[in-house]
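#onboarding

Welcome to the new folks! Below is a worked example of what a typical request in this channel looks like: someone posts a single protein sequence, and someone else replies with the predicted structure as tokens. Don't worry about understanding the tokens yet, we'll cover that in week two.

Example request:
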Amino acid sequence: MGDDLGDEWWKHDDGSEGEKKTVQEEHSTGETKRTKPAKRKRVAEKTVKAKKKTDSQQNCIISQQTKDQESEKPKKKRNKKKTITDVLATSAPKPGCPSDLQDLVAQYFSDKRSVIERDELQLQNSCFLSSNDLTHSLSSYLKQVCPKWAKIQKQHTDKSSVVVLIVCSSAVRTIELIKLLTAFKGKAKVVKLFAKHIKIEEQVKLLQKGVTHIGVGTPGRIGALIDREGLTLQALRYVILDWNWRDRKLRRMIDISEVKGDLMKLLDSGILTTCKEDKVKIGLF
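Example response:
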């Protein structure tokens, strides 16, 4: 049938609109309630980041202060190891003597030879010439230890052998010593025996070609010539060691390990044996 005229229909419409508003308000309130925690979370994250940044800045400041303090501390000086040059520079020059050579030979062969063999290397004092007391030039020293040189020089006729053998540390020192021989040698022929710029075959041919009275050189090359039989000990009478001379680093011949080793091998190649047989005498210049 028709609508009920007694029903106040406009009141129902108002109620539905009110209900709609209430539902919308509740919905919007819920959304606001949901959005509030998100805002709080962002604020919390910003706070944490700011705190971390502050902490890192503080750590940087502390580490920088620590570095500054360390840099301000006085650095400890390292004790430099003394070189052989430093040691020799502070020691007063002392002329060599026969016991110095004896001790050097005994020390070098201590772990290379038996006790009996080492005893055989020891020389009597009669095997040595008088040593240089640091007042002699080479010529004046040779005149003292070899007063009859003019006669010995004339009598020498053997090839591939010398009467006087002067042993030094280097090629440069060899040239210096040859120049210092001028006042002593007279008409004697002098040969330089070192490896620098000179082939050993050339030196062998030179020694075989004519009579040579004095040989000056390094122990390494002299030893090599003896091994090849380019130089013999047949006419040898004097071995002069350039013992007291020092180079720019204040090293003597025996202070250079390589030269010392070559010298010991040279002495052991037959020179010590001829000394014990009283055929050769050793002098320390």
